[in-house]
Design a protein that fits this description.
Elements (H helix, E strand, L loop, with lengths): L53 H37 L3 H33 L6 H19 L6 H16 L1 H7 L5
Helix pairs in contact: 1-2, 1-4, 3-4
Protein name: Integral membrane protein
Organism: Streptomyces spinosisporus
Keywords: Membrane, Transmembrane, Transmembrane helix
Length: 186
Amino acid sequence: MSFGDPNNPYGPPQGQQPGYGHPQQPQQPGYGYPQAPPVQQPYGAGVPMTTMPGTVNTARVLLWVIVGLQAVGMVFLALGLAAIDKAKDTTDDSTVQDILGDSTGILWGYLVFALAWLVFAVVLAVKFKDGGNSYRITTLVFAIITAVLGIYPFVVVGLVHTVLAILVAVFVGNANGKAWFNRPRY
């Protein structure tokens, strides 16, 4: 058997001298699985956040838009209540007065609820700058309830509320929202 033949399958590997045992080969760096890239720190980790991320600021602006829409809706509701009261005073028909009397109570309830919801949205929008994680969760719950209420009782008018509330929930619930509301405060 000759080790000098380069085509001999039993000979030593090319470029090495025949010797006893297995020839030692230098280990290649990075042998096996490739090295993982360095771990990215989440947004704002280690450094205190001083500016509000764009999506969180957009959620705050959308809350103010919801406040404005609530105010406009309350004005229309109050005008409707005034028109119903005037119609109730001018008619002598007892059935019409019964219908108008019942609807007035329901509309007053809607007006009180709309005012409470407006105040709640104002408080949440104001607390975006310095609020903690509890305000984030409260804003998520507020946005989800607003979206549901925009769909069910007020389908046509509430469509804008629904879209805005879904966007607020998405922007507050994403990673930037979590990092902003969980940031350290000094």
